[in-house]
Design goal:
With 337 residues, this protein is of the alpha/beta class. 45% of the residues lie in helices and 15% in strands. Helix 8 (197-206) crosses helix 13 (278-288).
């Protein structure tokens, strides 16, 4: 009898031990998953638009979650995304190579690095009403151009006008921040506007407004710089390189989804930002599906030659307070292969 009781107790002990052993890994796994879910703040450069589609897709499709990340997307403060990322309050954000220039080198250098190109080529240029002679830069002579009054902007417009044989001094500079390009052109308040074609240019098509347009990169290849780019905080990159790589891996999947399924991606963006014009988003998404990666195989890749060429042009034209050295301000190190 004693032997039977001992055997029963031993069996019971083994059952409970096995159950306990079975429970612990599950608990540990839950604890580990919870611990690995890392919070990331991503700050936009402007209100949501199709430059950001892949970001919203990655969030909607759970790609960030798959990488153990919880991503919060926030609007930029008054001093911009660069300042928030530099402060460390956001780990990632959207910026532009031209606007990064003052903070790339020297005493005012910001602790940020461009880690991915959202669009492979500069899709910006000058748009105007069709048939008024501004299909080339020289045609801007005697016309009203809406300027932001920024040194780099004016130097670029001057360069393309003169390369086309025009006289930049004859361009009428009208200080104006145009937020509705269609209305501005229709009202004749200005004649020419610098736009990013994927949004403002496509908006004129959706509105049925016929326009002329030329791209800066088609006039001078040095202006085929990177705009927009994903920037990251330098301390974050140094301390958590694997987290940075995980974030960009998920983001890559989001943009590749947008390339392969532009209509579905546009729907996801509209759901996240219902205030957007759905027709504009769909048309813009169709335009950008061929621009996110363009001819490169690796999503987000930044060509050092193109990056350096633009900053060298700034150096040569006295548009940078401190000379910008080669390969300053960007890295391909964190991109998924």
């Amino acid at each position: 009898m004693k032997k039977k009781i001992a055997a029963v107790l031993l069996c019971a002990s083994m059952v409970f031990s096995m159950a306990a052993c079975g429970e612990k890994p599950a608990e540990k796994e839950g604890e580990t998953a919870k611990k690995e879910q890392e919070k990331i703040t991503f700050v936009l450069d402007w209100t949501p638009n199709t430059n950001h589609t892949g970001l919203y897709v990655a969030q909607d499709q759970g790609y960030f979650e798959e990488e153990g990340l919880e991503v919060e997307i926030v609007q930029p403060p008054e001093d911009g995304a660069d300042a928030l990322v530099a402060s460390g309050k956001a780990q990632f954000g959207v910026s532009f190579q031209d606007s990064m220039a003052p903070g790339v080198a020297g005493e005012n250098a910001l602790p940020t690095t461009a880690v991915a190109a959202l669009i492979q080529h500069n899709t910006s240029g000058i748009i105007s009403r069709k048939g008024e002679g501004m299909d080339t830069p020289k045609g801007m002579e005697g016309k009203k151009y809406a300027t932001w009054d920024a040194p780099v902007e004016k130097a670029m417009v001057k360069n393309v006008v003169e390369q086309d044989g025009g006289d930049f001094s004859k361009v009428e500079m009208i200080p104006s921040t145009v937020t509705d390009e269609v209305s501005a052109l229709k009202s004749n308040s200005v004649d020419a506007i610098w736009v990013f074609y994927a949004w403002a240019g496509v908006a004129t098509e959706v509105a049925g407004l016929e326009t002329d347009y030329f791209a800066f990169k088609d006039i001078n290849p040095v202006f085929d710089y990177y705009t927009p780019v994903v920037i990251a905080n330098n301390s974050f990159l140094e301390e958590k390189p694997e987290t940075a790589k995980a974030f960009l891996k998920a983001l890559k999947k989001g943009y590749e989804f947008a390339i392969e399924k532009p209509e579905e991606a546009a729907e996801i963006l509209c759901e996240a930002s219902p205030e957007l014009d759905k027709d504009l988003v769909l048309a813009s998404q169709e335009y950008l599906k061929d621009e996110y990666k363009a001819e490169v195989e690796q999503w987000g890749y930044i060509d050092p030659a193109r990056w350096n060429a633009f900053y060298q042009w700034l150096n040569e034209n006295g548009l940078s307070e401190t000379e910008i050295p080669e390969n300053a301000g960007f890295s391909n190190e964190y991109l998924p292969k």
